[in-house]
Design goal:
The longest helix has 27 residues, at 190-216. This protein is of the alpha+beta class. Strand 1 (40-43) and strand 2 (48-51) form a beta hairpin. The chain has helices at residues 21-25, 27-37, 54-61, 81-90, 104-115, 118-137, 146-151, 153-163, 170-177, 180-185, 190-216, 222-232, 239-252, 255-269, 272-280, 285-295, 327-331, 366-383, and strands at residues 40-43, 48-51, 67-68, 142-145, 302-306, 310-312, 315-317, 322-325, 388-389, 409-412. The structure holds protoporphyrin IX containing FE.
Length: 415
Amino acid sequence: MTITPDVRTCPIDADFDPLSEEYLDDPYAHQNAVRDRGPIFYSPRLDMYVLTRYEDIEAVFRNPSVFSATIQQQPVFDLAPETKKILVEKFTTTAVMSDCDPPMHTRIRALNMKGFSARRIAALEPRVRAKTIELIDRIEPGPVDMVAALSYPLPAFVVSALIGFPEEDADRIKAWCGNRIEFSWGAPSVAEQAEVANNMVSYWEYCQRFVEFRKENPADDFTSYLLAAHRENPESISEYEIANVTFGLSFAGHETTTSLAGSALRRLLSRRQLWEEICADPSLIPGAVEEMLRYDSAVIAWRRRTTREVTVAGVEIPQGATVLLLLGAANHDPSHFHDPEVLDIRRADAKAHLAFGKGIHFCLGAALARVEGRVILEELTKRAPEMTLLPQEFTFPRNISFRGPKQLWVQWPGR
Ligand code: HEM
């Protein structure tokens, strides 16, 4: 639906283009500029109301009855009819968490929260560390792309281990899961759409088969936990919903963490003093991870849809409108963070960032993402403190929400 905003109260910014090269190169410069101009504007290019300030964005997150999450996974731009056909016929998923409102969200989330218990995350940490060391040990001296060598495969392994997918399926899963970000949050060509849609179907079918398999072969993993909950009380979650949870989790938990690690390495290695400080004192690492989530997060914009007319920052937003929350602008909002453009690994209030959202949809994997970010930095600073960032042009996935370098070339020590 295209909205006609009330031009008497709502500024319009026809130039705002989050898919332009300049924006992708440095979204913070653009997000800061629009925030400094005002708290809200309408973007005709996106057909969205865009919010820029911390307080307003936090208030939206905390008001799920007016700002519905159901839009979350819907493609930002309309898909081609051929793509829609593939999805309608074979992609028979349903919303279970990130794109679902109460009361269904409340039911599924409550169960998932128990599954993501501190015990399960703590039990995963030694596996996260062992895999990190294994991947690091494979790196040869010389130039190396740390995304391909470490920050892509590690979170893929971790989320698969959490769900319980067999390790030997990793390559198949990897092949199916590529390019999802640009598919849903970017503007892919028709050929790209068809490829991703077919992969999504294959992966969805795999998730359903896997749940069937786990029914007969339970193990100590998240899927078995959900199946046990279903057996105990079939009303709590259905097998179909469990397959949907596994499908959603593997996406939510993978490339976000890849991006966190990639951005952290980029930012810390390019500020040598900070890198040396965390090498000398690893107790600074948790703070560095938190600051990285604020300073250069994996999710820089997120969407909601209004369930009724509502006034935000003096602007009337109609029912059914899409609202884009500029998380990057919020995390760099000077009315909330002192000197927001300074990357300060000792920042006391870094944790107040909105990188994981707020309220009922607050990222379920936040604790796990923090563990992965911390373990990666702990092991790299211990094993390769002399590593240096190579001169390079960074590229980023062309989309409005997710951000992280596609490659990150470093000189690995030893030669
Ligand atoms: C740096 C890493 C990550 C970032 C920046 C991130 C960010 C986010 C954001 C912004 C949301 C939406 C919050 C909202 O709509 O209010 C979210 C939701 C979610 N995340 Fe993450 N995430 C990360 C890692 C993970 C990991 C590792 C997992 C799981 C293994 C995960 C699972 C989820 C799930 C299941 C939801 C939906 C929760 C719900 O709707 O109740 N995320 N995340």
